[in-house]
Amino acid sequence: MYAMRRELNQYRQAGPIAEIAVADPHRLTQMLFEGALERIAVARGAMAQGNIPLKGLKIGQAMDIIGELRNALDLERGGELAANLDALYDYMIRRLVVGNARNDPAALEEVATLLREIKAGWDAIPEQMRKAS
């Protein structure tokens, strides 16, 4: 039984790793959004179950991903949009810290909602614009 579970976990991990190897920058950014959202969802579940170590781990991972999204911004060329996203990512990280410290699922949901909104805009970028950049 343990061997089957281990093999299943290895299979689950192989898919995203293979996709990363061939993904374009647009898809990689989508995957970062998806990863952050997944980790926040797991953290909320862990919070509800009282699993403090898992909650902290997943919130930390979500914060790392949001930090990477923030670091990828080109503040010089991105103008007002990049500055606004920078401030929003900073806010999200601070809300995750508060949510973790206070065991506040509403703070985590607020961040997830913001991430979903940004991801929806990112997903709506037309294919020809993705290739132009």
TrEMBL record:
It is found in: Cytoplasm, Cytosol. Belongs to the FliS family. GO terms for cellular component: cytosol. Pfam families: FliS (PF02561). This is Flagellar secretion chaperone FliS. The keyword rRNA-binding does not apply. Gene3D superfamilies: Flagellar protein FliS. NCBIfam families: fliS. The keyword Repeat does not apply. It comes from the Bacteria.
